[in-house]
Amino acid sequence: MMSIVLAAASGACLAASPAQMEPGFDISGAGARPCSAWTEARDKMGDRESSALLDEAMMVTWVQGFLNGMNVSRIAAGGQPARLPDGDSIRTYVDAFCRRQPGTRVMQAALQLYLSNAAR
């Protein structure tokens, strides 16, 4: 059942433009934050006085957990797992996505990253 929900969410997100990719379900944690929060945290990484390091670490960790969860769902549905990116690759992808689409959520960047890796 979970794999059907995730497949439907993935298909809906592929058919929509990034600005229209609001999930039809609740998300929580760092993935619910807007891409502008990701970009702000990444831009402030050199500022030792800010909480940017913690914010960035929480968002990267959330994305890693999301990607792993997508793989678990894929395996449970009888599919092959996608090759998952390392932390630096996650940062690079989400940086680019969020700079292009600051009004979307970190989850949407994570989903697109997963789908691009799963297609390989």
SSE inventory with pairings:
Elements: H1 2-15, H2 35-43, H3 52-76, H4 87-100, H5 106-118
Helix pairs in contact: 2-3, 2-4, 3-5, 4-5
Task: Spell out the key features of this protein.
120 residues, Rap1a immunity protein domain-containing protein, elongated, signal, mainly alpha
Structural account:
- This is Rap1a immunity protein domain-containing protein.
- It is a single chain.
- Helices cover 62% and strands 0% of the residues.
- The longest helix is centred in the middle third of the chain and has 25 residues.
- The N terminus is likely disordered.
- It is built from 5 helices and no strands.
- By secondary structure, it is an all-alpha fold.
- The chain has one domain.
- Helix 3 crosses helix 5 and helix 4 crosses helix 5.
Total count of domains: 1
Number of strands: 0
The portion of residues assigned to helices is 55-70%
**Element pattern in H and E:** HHHHH
Rg (CA only): 14 Å
The rough form would be described as: elongated
* Global mean pLDDT: 82
Stretches where pLDDT is under 50 for at least 5 consecutive residues are 1-20
Largest sheet: none
The number of helical elements comes to 5
Summarize the structure.
By secondary structure, the chain is mainly alpha-helical.
